[in-house]
TrEMBL record:
NCBIfam families for this protein: CarR_dom_SF (TIGR03462)
Protein name: Lycopene cyclase
Keyword check for Membrane: yes
Lycopene cyclase domain boundaries: 6-95
UniProt-recorded Gene Ontology molecular function terms: intramolecular lyase activity; lycopene beta cyclase activity
Membrane topology of the entry: Multi-pass membrane protein
Superkingdom of source: Bacteria
TM region positions: 6-26, 33-52, 79-97
Length: 105
């Protein structure tokens, strides 16, 4: 079970914030180009930072805490983190920014 914890937390983050798209009208998924333009720099910058840090031995990922699947040297869960957490943040930001009565969208 330890290997699934990272994915479980990411899934919980998505499960909690996805309803913001439909209930509060965040309109994040309806604008895929804008979403991609938002997420791509995060993945490149922080993915590169993690790769560099892991290469230098500044940090590492426990085999028991991940599934063991690696992409470019990092656990797949870490790459998903760089997609899921910013996505959840954007969903929350957009949902809160579309408060009732706001007409400038």
């Amino acid at each position: 079970m330890d290997g699934w914890q990272y994915l479980a937390v990411l899934a919980l983050c998505v499960a909690v914030t996805v309803p913001l798209e439909f209930v509060l009208g965040a309109r994040v998924y309806r604008r895929p180009r804008v979403l991609l333009a938002t997420l791509a720099p995060v993945v490149v910058l922080f993915g590169g930072w993690d790769l560099f840090g892991a290469y230098r031995g500044d940090w590492w990922y426990g085999i028991r805490q991940t599934l063991g699947v690696r992409l470019l040297g990092l656990p797949v869960e870490e790459w998903l983190f760089f997609l899921v957490v910013p996505l959840c943040a954007v969903l929350t930001f957009e949902a809160l920014g579309t408060g009732r009565g706001r007409r400038d969208r």
